[in-house]
Model the fold of this input.
Amino acid sequence: MARDLNEKGFAIFDFPDPDIEAKMEGIKRDYRDRYDWQAWRDGKLNSLRLQDAWKSDPRVREIAANPDVLDMISAIYGREAFAFQTLNFAVGTQQEAHSDHAHFNSIPDRFMCGVWLAFEDVDSENGPLFYYPGSHRWPSYQNEHLGVSYKQIDGHFREYRKYVRLWNELAAQEGIQREIFRARKGQALLWSANILHGGSAQVDPSRTRWSQVTHYFFKGCSYTTPVANDTFQGRILYRDVQDVRTGEPVPNMISGEPLDARFRTAMLEQYAASASSPSRLLTLMRTLAASPFRANQELPTGFDPLGYLAGNPDLLDADIDPYEHFLAFGRKEGRSWSL
Ligand SMILES: O=C(O)CCC(=O)C(=O)O
Ligand SMILES: [Fe+2]
Done:
């Protein structure tokens, strides 16, 4: 496993849980009615996903916090792994090629990995996962390398295209061919932080592609959202993560010390100061601090209120509480909440 992960950026294994069959079938049966199939058939949704179902479902949590998987990746990385996010998909994600590293990364770099588990057989017709072997060794590209600034946030999606273009050009230049994972039910794929991957088109829309992704970080690091960082302007969007196994928050650590709370606050003020309307942002910062919804159990782990606004520019100029808005509307509308 370690050799595959090192050389190719991914490794395939049989999921080590004797009860996995019952868990997968139970999740499929119970979740069928929780997705908006009509919106998916009408092409309004690219995918059907449930984020952080671990909060309410022990089966999802037990898959995410499987002790053998945790032990294996902890041994490979030499640090204690913990799951911080789950995604349960009913169909293929059709997500374009990306590196997770741009969405969640650690300090020090690359202490992040994902495990994708097939809840049914997958072939070229029902949206298989794809990846570019070897791409995990590419440099760690951040906003400063692409000339992207958090200030350009209302153009965020346009700016994200720069990452997509870079990744595709690198793959072409290095002559790396995309491979797909024809998974057997119960097989899993471990991927490293920077491997270029995504979901192939769901060629046959009458089929499903049930699967669970768990994203892992490692203790003793700090956790950030790189696409939202403007590191050299003093803006780093640290994430508040929870350990899926225990539900406990995991502190951001820098070289053995907890992240200085004053530094964190100063950075949030930096974000506020970079806004087009500082007084509105000041109001927003107060709203965030005082929001009765900020600890709501139904918020996805790592919910990023600034990322929610940044990713939904129509909300930027409204005087709203992003936590409340997400719970009342954003969730149902399928709005993205992390950059
Ligand atoms: O399941 C897929 O098609 C891709 C999922 C993915 O890229 C992720 O969860 O990071
Ligand atoms: Fe991904």
